[in-house]
Design brief:
- This protein has 30 helices and 7 strands.
- It is mainly α.
- It is globular, with a radius of gyration of 29 Å.
- The C terminus is likely disordered.
Length: about 650
């Protein structure tokens, strides 16, 4: 009896523990994406492109690390640490396969506010003579990196707290015009901060409201103090960088390895400065001493956390928004999915853990991510390989960068921001698609310029929500129109070999950023269920959902739907008679629906579209121009389908 009881207990225990073990494994795989992709990593196909991309990325990481550390008002060596540790952490926890995390211009600019406020340059004379045992740097430099590390630590804690609260789903509030305007405005601030190095003149640190204008006022008042040597060298570097990068972009398909012009320029400028003694002969400012090695970890100063709350929130929000936009763009380009909440955790830990290693705030950068695209990177292995070369620079090459002129470093920063600055071209696009989005872009940019990136971001979100609430009626967004009648007519009149399905879906509500993703998800689900089985229409009609009421669920638009059955030919008619207005996100989603359906061999027709909507759709995407897709009525669209498929019998019975 006792043996039987023991067996029963052991069976019960195994039943209880088995699902828990499986749940734990699944949780680990979801929270540690590296376990998923590393197990499937193909050495033969991926190692070579990842290695080449990693080497090219290391060049960018080193140059931007040095530059953004100076931008953050700390010693350049701390930028090298910021290019190493965050990249490793993100490779473990992040889901973006082509996202290059490290030092970032916008977060560096925000943390500089805290550094300059709490450890101003005027206090340097009090601490210059006292050197710490950490890398031989002065107490002044260590106090400054302490403040920057505190901003990184607290910003990361805020991001992890947002992950715990599952606030990643709230990112649908961040529309493309708002993000574009904020990043463009912040890039303008970064360029302004580099003017003093480009011109070789002394400019005091100026921040706060309208600080952007005060800086240029000071520059023009002291225009006679510009060093001609620094200005000419800056112009030469900018011209060389732009020309070579444009040539690399044009011939990237013909040449396997692009020219690392940043690295070549750094080596050439350092050698020239050393041989000609430019530092003393012409008064050019150089990077200076860069110590070897990595110091032992140390906790950020906790007593300053209360003083850097504002900057920490700015780093958390701006860094996450910019990084998530790059991750989602990468996922959309290479057909995989990204979890918004997991990205919060990844970037939060990429700020918290490196803060113990004297790192400035980190995020993903557009230039580095675009570099991974162009060099053919496959996975995060490219970022891990770049970390190896960054380590070589820290332990071996770093001291040789002493003679690198600051004007050259500033030129690299300015050219690296080209991707953000050319977003001014988006204004034409927003004007043609939705003039309200154009107004939001301009106003968000102005607020960012006049105040700060986090203020501009907040203004853009509030402004967008307020405008939409004032225009948005509460009705259903999707409904299936005459589906039962249409399915019956198709199936009775057509032969079994060529089954023609026509789905007519009416959009009865505005299509904006609030419900665009959910609209795409609902529509793809309807098509997927229709193609998966020939179930009765009464069951299909149950798929209708109130998109507006569920818009906060943030439907995942990256899930791949099943392909239609090979023996079926499908056509989709979108009735836009109830589409009272749409913003840029809504129009973009209509174009995305068209392209997704086209890839699944589903013909899409738009009916009852206004002239402005037709113009916006045509401007927003490259649609098929060989055959008409816009029609005045449903019957006209059906007649077109009949004529294309030679379905004369079907046409006789499908008048609406």
């Amino acid at each position: 009896m006792k043996g039987a009881k023991r067996k029963k207990k052991s069976v019960l225990r195994s039943k209880m523990h088995t699902p828990h073990c499986e749940d734990f494994k699944q949780w680990c795989r979801s929270r540690l994406p590296i376990l998923e992709w590393a197990a499937r990593y193909n050495l033969k196909e991926n190692l070579l492109p990842d290695t080449v991309s990693g080497i090219m990325l290391a060049v960018q990481q080193v140059t931007q690390g040095l530059a953004f550390a100076v931008l953050s008002s700390v010693h350049p060596v701390f930028g090298l640490y910021g290019s190493l540790f965050p990249a490793i952490i993100y490779a473990i926890f992040g889901m973006g396969r082509h996202v290059a995390t490290g030092t970032f211009a916008l977060t560096s600019l925000i943390s500089a506010n805290a550094v300059e406020r709490l450890v101003p340059l005027s206090s340097q004379n009090l601490t210059t003579q006292s050197n710490t045992s950490v890398l031989g740097l002065s107490d002044f430099e260590m106090q400054r990196i302490g403040v920057a590390a505190a901003v990184s630590f607290l910003g990361g804690v805020i991001q992890v707290a947002m992950f715990v609260l599952q606030l990643g789903s709230a990112t649908f509030l961040l529309t493309e015009p708002v993000i574009s305007a904020m990043t463009t405005g912040a890039a303008t601030h970064v360029v302004t901060s580099q003017v003093k190095y480009l011109l070789g003149m002394k400019v005091p640190y100026i921040s706060g409201p309208l600080g952007f204008f005060y800086i240029y006022a000071h520059v023009f008042e002291n225009i006679k103090s510009v060093r001609l040597e620094a200005l000419l060298l800056s112009l030469l570097c900018i011209v060389v960088l732009v020309l070579v990068k444009e040539l690399n972009e044009q011939f990237k398909r013909k040449i396997k390895i692009v020219l690392p012009v940043d690295l070549v320029l750094i080596i050439a400028a350092s050698l020239t400065c050393y041989c000609t003694n430019m530092e003393n002969a012409y008064g050019l400012e150089v990077v200076g001493h860069i110590p070897k090695g990595i110091p032992p970890p140390k906790a950020p100063p906790m007593h300053v956390l209360s003083a850097v709350i504002t900057e920490a929130f700015g780093v958390a929000l701006v860094g996450y928004v910019a990084s998530l936009a790059l991750a989602q763009g990468s996922a959309k380009k290479f057909k995989y999915s990204v979890d918004d909440n997991q990205e919060l955790l990844a970037h939060g830990l990429s700020n918290v853990i490196p803060s113990f290693f004297f790192c400035i705030p980190s995020a993903a950068a557009m230039g580095r991510t675009a570099g991974l695209y162009s060099t053919g990177a496959k996975t995060q292995v490219a970022c891990l390989i770049s970390c190896i070369f960054v380590l070589i620079v820290i332990y071996v090459i770093g001291p040789f960068l002493y003679w690198l002129p600051m004007c050259v470093l500033a030129s690299i920063i300015v050219v690296g921001l080209k991707g953000m600055l050319i977003q001014f071209r988006d204004l034409k696009k927003y004007w043609n698609v939705d003039k309200i989005d154009w107004g939001i872009w301009v106003s968000t940019y102005i607020f960012t310029i006049c105040f700060a990136a986090n203020v501009g971001l907040l203004f853009g979100v509030v402004c967008t929500i307020a405008i939409v609430i004032g225009r948005f009626p509460r009705e259903k967004t999707l409904s299936i129109k005459n589906m039962k009648e249409m399915e019956f007519k198709v199936k009775t009149e057509m032969d079994d070999e060529t089954l023609q399905q026509v789905k007519i879906i009416s959009i009865n509500n505005p299509l904006v950023f609030l419900n665009a993703k959910k609209f795409h998800s609902d529509l793809m689900n309807i098509i997927q269920k229709e193609n998966a089985s020939n179930q009765p229409l009464d069951e299909i009609s149950k798929c209708e959902q109130n998109t507006l009421l569920n818009s906060l669920s943030n439907g995942n638009c990256n899930e791949e739907t099943t392909q239609p059955c090979p023996n079926e030919k499908c056509s989709l008619i979108l009735d836009c008679s109830g589409l009272t207005f749409s913003d840029y996100s809504g129009v973009s989603m209509l174009v995305e629906v068209y392209m997704d359906c086209k890839s699944k061999s589903v013909d899409v027709s738009f009916v009852h579209c206004t002239a402005s909507l037709i113009k916006a759709i045509r401007y927003c995407g490259n649609l098929d121009s060989e055959k008409p897709i816009f029609f005045e009525s449903v019957s006209a669209a059906i007649s077109n389908i009949c004529s294309n498929k030679n379905l004369s019998k079907f046409c006789d019975h499908s008048e609406i």
